[in-house]
Task: inverse folding
């Protein structure tokens, strides 16, 4: 799906269809701005205030929706707390000032953790068609509060292996419980770890193949 840019009076909306994981936050929160299943233009920035556009864009977990205020209002702020959430039977949802595979990647991204995406490291929805089953919940492990909770986060997909994540990060379950607080970790992206969301080396046993560093 192509990238779209729609300019409104006070705010411009960018939509990257390839990044969208169809969580439908946008069409459920603001069906007047994001109008699905219609012929022609489906994004209407002027239907609500630019503040509301900003809120709905920031609720998009994948980063498919971004915005630019053109009325002098504030642009999207960096997250105050870097986090990765494990979505039930779905991807890893990051919020941070992201660099992914060495490239600036905005403040929000959903990355594949089932191993099936054809657009790795990004999620392309294959977890649903592939029948991936993985809890979004798990028991916490011992961790101490971080000295800083924000800052840049580097996500480096390892060749045939996990996501190496460097920077302040809180690992959070789908329902918001903190699992770990770390400055460096390795997250499973092959779908086979027995210790999800962390890598336990299973990628080697199952012969996982993916581009990486
Ligand atoms: S991922 Fe973003 S753009 Fe896609 S449906 Fe969800 S909120 Fe909308
Ligand atoms: S990437 Fe899945 S166990 Fe290492």
Result:
């Amino acid at each position: 799906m192509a990238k779209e840019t729609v300019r409104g009076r006070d705010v411009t909306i960018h939509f990257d269809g390839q990044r969208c994981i169809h969580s439908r936050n946008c069409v459920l929160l603001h069906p007047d701005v994001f109008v699905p299943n219609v012929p022609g233009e489906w994004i209407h920035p002027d239907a609500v205030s630019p503040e509301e556009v900003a809120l709905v864009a920031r609720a998009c977990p994948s980063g498919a929706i971004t915005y630019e205020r053109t009325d002098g209002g504030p642009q999207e702020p960096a997250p105050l707390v870097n986090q990765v959430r494990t979505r039930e039977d779905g991807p890893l949802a990051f919020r941070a000032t992201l660099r992914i595979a060495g490239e600036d990647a905005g403040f929000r991204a959903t990355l594949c953790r089932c191993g099936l995406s054809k657009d790795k490291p990004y999620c392309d929805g294959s977890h649903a068609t592939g029948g991936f089953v993985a809890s979004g919940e798990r028991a916490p492990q011992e961790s101490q509060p971080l000295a800083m909770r924000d800052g840049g986060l580097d996500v480096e997909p390892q060749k045939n292996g996990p996501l190496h994540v460097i920077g302040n990060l809180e690992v959070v379950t789908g329902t918001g419980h903190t699992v770990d607080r770390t400055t460096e970790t390795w997250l499973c992206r092959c779908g086979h770890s027995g210790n999800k969301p962390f890598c336990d080396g299973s990628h080697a046993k199952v012969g996982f193949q993916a581009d990486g560093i």
